[in-house]
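Rather than argue in generalities, we reproduce a single protein record, letters for residues, whole numbers for local backbone shapes, just as it appears below:
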Amino acid sequence: MDLQAKKIALRKIPHGVYVVGVKQDRELNAFTATWLTQVSFTPPLVALGIKKDSHSFEMIKRDRVFSVNLLGKHQKPIAEHFVKPATVLGEKLKEVRYRLGRTGVPLLEEAIAYVECEVREIANEQGDHAVVIGEVVEAGVHKDEPALTLTDTGWHYGG
């Protein structure tokens, strides 16, 4: 296989840029994600790709809830903020306005929209990322505008 061609081809798959909120007991965290898609209408399910060696994945496995905060085209700085590793878990949330959703996960007040999900399945034993299937149990829209994509940021993830 031509590894460079594989990398380029896989990077052409369109991706949104999201801030995913998680909780475990009273502990909160959030991170930038790009691997998300809707996988069912009834029930409404989304699939989220997340690194298996991350603390946020452990939080999702324990409390089995997460939020997806959708960002607008002009909100790359928010996505950048949540890409950076935190020295203390949850400290990234200290610098942004958020509220707790119905499931207790953080919802960014500046997000254009959000969904809250309850985990229904975790898959992908083979890869370095797990696929978390969540059922949408709550949703909201703050602004009806185009969402931020990976192409908008100039970043590359995957391949």
